TrEMBL record:
<feature type="region of interest" description="Disordered">
    <location>
        <begin position="1"/>
        <end position="66"/>
    </location>
</feature>
<dbReference type="GO" id="GO:0009231">
    <property type="term" value="P:riboflavin biosynthetic process"/>
</dbReference>
<keyword id="KW-0686">Riboflavin biosynthesis</keyword>
<keyword id="KW-0521">NADP</keyword>
<feature type="domain" description="Bacterial bifunctional deaminase-reductase C-terminal">
    <location>
        <begin position="68"/>
        <end position="306"/>
    </location>
</feature>
<dbReference type="InterPro" id="IPR002734">
    <property type="entry name" value="RibDG_C"/>
</dbReference>
<keyword id="KW-0560">Oxidoreductase</keyword>
<dbReference type="GO" id="GO:0008703">
    <property type="term" value="F:5-amino-6-(5-phosphoribosylamino)uracil reductase activity"/>
</dbReference>
<feature type="compositionally biased region" description="Polar residues">
    <location>
        <begin position="35"/>
        <end position="52"/>
    </location>
</feature>
<comment type="function">
    <text>Catalyzes an early step in riboflavin biosynthesis, the NADPH-dependent reduction of the ribose side chain of 2,5-diamino-6-ribosylamino-4(3H)-pyrimidinone 5'-phosphate, yielding 2,5-diamino-6-ribitylamino-4(3H)-pyrimidinone 5'-phosphate.</text>
</comment>
<feature type="compositionally biased region" description="Basic and acidic residues">
    <location>
        <begin position="54"/>
        <end position="63"/>
    </location>
</feature>
<dbReference type="InterPro" id="IPR050765">
    <property type="entry name" value="Riboflavin_Biosynth_HTPR"/>
</dbReference>
<comment type="pathway">
    <text>Cofactor biosynthesis; riboflavin biosynthesis.</text>
</comment>
<protein>
    <recommendedName>
        <fullName>2,5-diamino-6-ribosylamino-4(3H)-pyrimidinone 5'-phosphate reductase</fullName>
        <ecNumber>1.1.1.302</ecNumber>
    </recommendedName>
</protein>
<dbReference type="Pfam" id="PF01872">
    <property type="entry name" value="RibD_C"/>
</dbReference>
<dbReference type="InterPro" id="IPR024072">
    <property type="entry name" value="DHFR-like_dom_sf"/>
</dbReference>
<comment type="similarity">
    <text>Belongs to the HTP reductase family.</text>
</comment>
Amino acid sequence: MSNPEALTFPAADALGLEPHLPPPFSRKGAEEQKNISQQQQNDAAAAPSTTARGGERKTETKRNKPKPFVTLTFAISLDSSLSLAPGTRTILSGPQSKAMTHYLRSRHAAICVGVGTAIADDPGLNCRLLSASPSKPQHQPRPIVIDPNARWALKEDAKVLQLARAGLGLAPFIAVASATSPDDQTRELLERHGGKYIFIDQPAAAGNDQNTSGAVRFNWDDVLAVVMSEGLESIMIEGGGQIINSLLAAPENELIDSVIVTIAPTWLGQGGVVVSPPRTVGADGELVSPVRLTGVSWHPLGEDVVMCGKILR
Ligand SMILES: NC(=O)C1=CN([C@@H]2O[C@H](COP(=O)(O)OP(=O)(O)OC[C@H]3O[C@@H](n4cnc5c(N)ncnc54)[C@H](O)[C@@H]3O)[C@@H](O)[C@H]2O)C=CC1
Ligand SMILES: Nc1nc(O)c(N)c(N[C@@H]2O[C@H](COP(=O)(O)O)[C@@H](O)[C@H]2O)n1
């Protein structure tokens, strides 16, 4: 099946992003990826696969756990909203910055969203960039859905599974708490498409971010260590609000290698899903900014602007 929505991203624009990206896939990695895509086209009912390649850089967390290269990337309005309301899909990126996001998808081994986004958006989470050559399938990132309580009622007609069946994307790995027992039907559906549940141990005590509901929250270094153990050496984290805010909170933000934000020239108004990490209190009890970027560059793309930077340490 051919790609019905083939996007292109100019090489000159890609060059400007290079300092903010994980290393390009190695020749061996590209070959393995090609084999994965070919196998998926031949047989959508493949056995669960844990093989994927990412950049060669291996960074470590402050707790010395191996972790992938982490890019935090999302599109936002002028009033810091990701969407008009929780549970609503809102298009912010124009065509050029949308193509940029798909270029990022072509450069990361994995792509991560929270279960709130999976339920609200029914996302494809694939790369729809035109391949450089017809004989070389486009790299597809492995979707990782953070779903501690296994809430996502995945169905056969989910966009991500339709794309996996068509050989245009990969089935998701769903990250659930170790204590969770996902239902057998969903597990079978997932595994039939080459996805699986992955289990995260030692969830942090509730209340480590803006969550006050007592819900299970993972430590990000635990999540990233499991992603790395799956052979996924780079990950772009797209959202939504709770995922981004928990990762931007100190000290979790130390785990981020690169931040790439599309800013769209629109206001979404009150009641949107807002990016705003919890404030931090300094040594003398004063309020301090929890996180700031450095080494920032700005890239106009159509009517949007894309801002790239690193977390100031
Ligand atoms: N404009 C953009 O670039 C994007 C917009 N969105 C929008 O964001 C909205 C969804 O955002 P939210 O409702 O905030 O949902 P979300 O996608 O952030 O998922 C929230 C859920 O993720 C889990 N979670 C979050 N942090 C966790 C942690 N540290 N450990 C374990 N589990 C954790 C919890 O189960 C929580 O209920 C949608 O409207 C979607 O369209 C989503 C992605 C990108
Ligand atoms: N970069 C960007 N711009 C927007 O305007 C968006 N709404 C999003 N959303 C993210 O992309 C996912 C949808 O992916 P598919 O197009 O279905 O593959 C969505 O779930 C958000 O993570 N991103």
